[in-house]
Amino acid sequence: MRILVAGAGGMLGRRLSVLPGCHGADRAALDITDRYAVAEAVTGYDAVINAAAWTDVDGAETREAEATALNGDGPANLAAACAASGAVLVHVSTDYVFAGDGKAPYPEDAPTAPINAYGRSKLAGELAVRRLLPDRGHVVRTAWLYDRDGRNFLTTMLRLADTQDTLDVVDDQRGQPTGAPFLAAQLVRLAQAAVAGHTPAGIYHGTAAGETTWFGFAREIFAQAGLDPERVRPTTTDRFPRPAPRPAYSVLGHRRWAAAGLTPQPDWRDELRDVLTGGPVA
């Protein structure tokens, strides 16, 4: 089976591109906002995984049209091309499509209500995929994605640990830290099952099991890295004002994986351990 990975230059895309059967295309090789280039690129592939995205959450507040072109129009182009070619599409979305005011894990069919421009742009992509590819379009929402390389929360915490005695980390936002290699493997499994006709189209939640706060995540990073977790101190979101509001609650439910015949991802602590050590991915 041949899988095209759009957005292969990003953190998730790099992980996807090295998996068996995957062929990566970064922004230079494939601009998903160019519908003619997309139609040509998709030809001959059994499935497409879209990891291309505008990810600058704060920047989207003043450049929403640009964010929507990549996060909304780009997935629409991919969905239209897959509809024409017969390929399956697995499109990566985000917890930011929700308001973040929940008290229990959001099910896949929970009402969406993004509170910032980035969330609106990603919701536009979801809606396009479901409209244009209702039978072969799979939307996978993820959250709090990290890896041991590049710029992300894990590498930032480890870098700051070398230069600061203590770190203040917000303790009033809850979510599910999700290792990029684990999500990449889950996306490929979903694509393979979808091509085989074993999985219903629609929305899935690709996050680790369990939940914590950024403060809890930071303490666990320190502990697993052999550092003193007491160096991490709790604080509140209002101490770090940002242009784009962040959802306070981003915990996602995983019920639909059973319908696909697939096992959800492991607990976030287990994922962190394997990401830090380069151990096996379940």
Automatic annotation (TrEMBL):
The keyword RNA-binding does not apply. It comes from the Bacteria. Keywords: NADP, Oxidoreductase. GO terms for molecular function: dTDP-4-dehydrorhamnose reductase activity. The keyword Oxidoreductase applies. It is an enzyme of class 1 (oxidoreductase). Pfam families: RmlD_sub_bind. Pathway: Carbohydrate biosynthesis; dTDP-L-rhamnose biosynthesis. InterPro entries: dTDP_dehydrorham_reduct, NAD(P)-bd_dom_sf, RmlD-like-bd. Its EC number is 1.1.1.133. Residues 1-277 form the RmlD-like substrate binding domain. Catalyzes the reduction of dTDP-6-deoxy-L-lyxo-4-hexulose to yield dTDP-L-rhamnose. Belongs to the dTDP-4-dehydrorhamnose reductase family. This is dTDP-4-dehydrorhamnose reductase. It comes from Hamadaea flava. The lineage of its organism: Bacteria, Bacillati, Actinomycetota, Actinomycetes, Micromonosporales.
